[in-house]
User: What shape does this take?
Amino acid sequence: MKRIDLTGQRFGRLVVLNEAGKNSHREIVWRCRCDCGKEIEVSGTSLRNGHTSSCGCLRSDNGKKRSGNTGRSAKELTGKRFGRLTVLERVGSLDGHALWHCRCDCGKEVDVTSLQLIHGYSKSCGCLKRENGQKSILTISAAAHRDGTNAHIASKKTKSPFGVKGISRHNSPTRPYDVKLVLHGKVLFRKTFATLEEAIVARKAAEEQYLKPLLEKWKIEDEKRGKEPRHSNDKL
Assistant: This one.
């Protein structure tokens, strides 16, 4: 094959300086200077087919751009604020992303990646999540209590061995069924009975007397708010 002189030609960031011999495959090798200043030897085949277009610095630069970790981008977050976090300085990299040392408004300092900061995955040292969790618990607790009564407890299934809420076993051999109804922390009804049938009747009568007005009140309140009625069939 006719020899092609590549001297002076440019291939990407490489400029061919002169011929430098042959490699083990009997291909002509050319000495080239990269735009970054480094000199390397490359086969004519690699130059012409575009396989090699720099000393390796092009691949390194492209990798930094993809990961967002160039020197310029690393400086851009210093001093910036993300939620409760203020970026103090870059401290390295983690999983291909710049790692930043930040101070939270609560005073605690943490290390967070650029990905977590920019996309809002991290807005505090963790104190914000804890505070929101506590607020949720208080909100749920407040919503559960109506007129001094825990509405969620009212809807729980009975633990009574007799399958009826408010009836338990009494140690009396003649009146072994204990019926109790508690509202607002006060015992409104309590009595023992000889048979389970009598105990059930007594419990339902107590519910009609003490609970029905409260359940009807809750039903009306829920309907006014445009919600489905809650606990209308619940018993304490």
